[in-house]
DNA sequence: CTTGCCTCTGACGTCAACGTCAGGTCCTAG
DNA sequence: CTAGGACCTGACGTTGACGTCAGAGGCAAG
């Protein structure tokens, strides 16, 4: 079967991140890579999902260090009280972020409404 | 009346940001400041709200440049087709961010569930 | 065997939103 | 009038997640 493993370029295109980023993830202990005799990295298919999970967590504002602390507990499925606390804490952080963003969006909606509504002393300029 | 205007330190404590940040906001054109004869900045009360709005927008991932482009259209309440488009675009971006965060939270919930549920081959370790 | 693309390891560059320090001025309480 | 805190303007430092470049080796095609 072909494609049971892939090299870094293919993983990059499949997961939508740069080659540099993948090397960085490895450096940060987020993504393990096998090596060929000549030292080239190779990855199994599930690495694509893993990279996308990493991207999600970055997107949620987590740092490499935090992600590095969470991922092992995802992999090993081993639950210590500490890891549970970490997961819960990050979940809570994301929750707060969502709340804040909704708040911000509402604020922006108010601004949009005021700039659209001429009753607010708003001047609408057309091209 | 006292406190109709305030100096930078007071604004900093009232709005919960650092003095340095306030100077930076001014530098970026986000926050105007009056000057005393000796060159000291003074701000009116509404500056507190303004700073908090700025913080909200930063919190939503907007850059200084983007905020600088949005704020005038908040102040002047002048609506050009371009400014409407900008506002709508940023609102949309925030919406996408919220969606992504909810997605991430769900993912994290799944992880939490799997680490908590022994049926998933998870090992629970107590102190 | 060579051409050309992919990959490797350093290692320095970048960018934003400030932090921090230096050296000097201002202002208010006592 | 003087001490000490608040303020001023540069200007350099910081941090994270990569970008980018240099120099060298690897690999499938022709």
UniProtKB/TrEMBL annotation, chains A, B:
Domain spans labelled HTH merR-type: 5-73
One Pfam family from the record: MerR_1
CDD domains named among the record's database cross-references:
HTH_MerR-like_sg3
Which ranges does the record mark as transmembrane?
none
Q: What is this protein called?
A: DNA-binding transcriptional regulator, MerR family
The answer to keyword Oxidoreductase applying to this record is: no
GO MF annotations, alphabetized: DNA binding; DNA-binding transcription factor activity
Q: Which keywords fit this entry according to its UniProt record?
A: DNA-binding
The record's listing under InterPro entries reads: DNA-bd_dom_put_sf, MerR-type_HTH_dom, MerR_fam
Q: Which SMART domains match?
A: HTH_MERR
């Amino acid at each position: 079967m072909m494609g049971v493993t892939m090299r870094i370029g293919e993983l990059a295109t499949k997961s939508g991140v740069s080659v540099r980023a993948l090397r960085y993830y490895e450096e940060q202990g987020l993504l393990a890579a096998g090596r060929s005799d000549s030292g080239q990295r190779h990855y199994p298919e599930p690495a694509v999902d893993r990279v996308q999970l990493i991207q999600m967590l970055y997107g949620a504002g987590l740092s490499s260090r935090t992600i590095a602390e969470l991922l092992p507990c995802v992999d090993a499925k081993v639950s210590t009280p500490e890891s549970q606390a970490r997961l819960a804490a990050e979940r809570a952080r994301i929750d707060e972020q969502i709340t804040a963003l909704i708040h911000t969006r509402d604020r922006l909606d108010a601004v949009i409404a005021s700039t659209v509504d001429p009753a607010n002393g708003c001047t609408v300029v057309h091209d």
